[in-house]
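User: Could you go from structure to sequence for me? I need the amino acid at each position, not a summary. Structure tokens:
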């Protein structure tokens, strides 16, 4: 085991953060993957499946099942992309926007509490490390 590994630490922090998010919006009955999608679509973002897969860090094939579940719940719709008829754009419905707003509020609250003692310089360093790891 590599207790001082940045990658293992990030993995551990990811799981703990996800547990906190699931707990914060537990009444919505969303899985971690569904929370991730809703957070990435919050604020009215309209993304293609490919863009959403990149933003969520999820393979497109895995994402399809998540989108199916959220669509069945009435939280989003997939519309054919006029510019690329082989692709779909993902749009939140009215109820989906409300759910995404709750998820977004939970993310901001958890981040605010967790990062209260972190300086802007430390946060910039963290973002640089995350950006480097995203290039793997």
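Assistant: Here is the amino acid at each position, in order:
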């Amino acid at each position: 085991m590599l207790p001082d590994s940045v990658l293992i630490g990030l993995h551990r922090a990811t799981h703990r953060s996800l547990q906190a998010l699931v707990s914060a919006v537990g009444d919505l009955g969303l899985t971690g993957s569904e929370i991730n999608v809703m957070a990435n679509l919050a604020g009215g973002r309209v993304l293609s499946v490919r863009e959403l897969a990149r933003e969520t860090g999820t393979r497109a094939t895995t994402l399809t099942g998540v989108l199916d579940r959220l669509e069945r719940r009435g939280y989003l719709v997939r519309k054919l992309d006029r510019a690329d008829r082989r692709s779909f754009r993902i749009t939140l419905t009215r109820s989906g926007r409300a759910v995404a707003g709750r998820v977004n509020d939970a993310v901001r609250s958890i981040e605010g509490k967790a990062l209260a003692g972190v300086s802007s310089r430390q946060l910039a360093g963290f973002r640089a490390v995350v950006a480097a790891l995203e290039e793997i």
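One structural detail worth keeping in mind: The beta strands are 47-48, 76-80, 88-92.
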